[in-house]
Amino acid sequence: MFSTLKHRLWRSKKREKEETGKQNRKIAMAKNRSRIFSSCSLLMSLLFFYSALVQFNDPDWYFWLPLYSSAFLVNLLNMRIPSKSKTLTLVAQLTLVGGNLLFVKVVIEALVLSGFSAFWSMDMRERVVREKVGSGLVVLSMLLHLKASSTTSTNQTKFSKRNQVSALPEAGMALLVVLSYGLSIYVFGFINKEEMKFS
């Protein structure tokens, strides 16, 4: 009887130790995810900040400056960990709506000016293509931030009561950073400025 009790006690301690190990691994993975998401948010905020700065020579800067500025703010303020702040979520939702409206505006403008082939065009020398890509990046970024803020999970341990980012928005943000910086390097590094069209 004593050996049975001792064996049960040993099994429960072993189970408890395994659970603690699993929780520690989950916490470590969540911290790594948060770091990746934070780094990607910082990089996207820098890109949107630069995009807002270069809008002053654009004929319709009054559309694009607020869009890029609000995308900059959402990325910068969500950099640490996606917030459940209602104000920040509202700003992200409004930015998403604005990005979608400007995307539709640019697509209609391209269709009217150049026909249906302009819809699929990725010729970055064209202003409408750059605006289409820019609004698309804002839309994707806002979707990922809204997804991250809605799917954050709180661990039950005392150590991490703060929110952690789920894997989908984290991977999406990493891909978005690679895509957006790759396009930026291509546009500013390989396209001759004289070839770019601004009207």
From TrEMBL:
Pfam families: TMEM220. The keyword Membrane applies. It comes from the Eukaryota. The chain crosses the membrane at residues 36-55, 61-78, 90-113, 171-191. The keyword Transmembrane applies. Keywords: Membrane, Transmembrane, Transmembrane helix. This is Transmembrane protein. It comes from Rhynchospora breviuscula.
